[in-house]
Design goal:
Blueprint (H helix, E strand, L loop, with lengths): L2 H20 L2 E5 L4 E10 L2 E6 L3 E6 L3 E5 L4 E4 L5 E4 L1 E3 L4 E5 L4 E5 L1
Parallel strand pairs: 2-6
Antiparallel strand pairs: 1-2, 1-5, 2-3, 3-4, 6-7, 8-9, 9-10
Amino acid sequence: MSIMRWQILGLSLCFVLCVQSTYADEIIFKNGDRLTGKIEQLVEGKLVFKSDVAGTVTVDISNIQTLSSDAEIKIHLKDGTVLNQKVTKAGPDRFAVEGTDTVKAQGI
């Protein structure tokens, strides 16, 4: 294979890896650590999270500063409401639930 083909292959691989890493759910813990992967669900104060690095873990939300998802997730709120929406970061101890028209801040 020529040098040019190896360079193109290398750049293509870097591009794919960069794109994949930017499309992941993310948890930011109160101690500053970050974990990327896939949020499975948020129920009764526990977040179930699947990561390539850590496997499937259950995290108490009291340890989470904020979180975000790249797709809709199932969220069970304290009042019994169940949402199936995307979430975004919204400051310390909060996250935002995206609706069709508005974004509502929710406490963690």
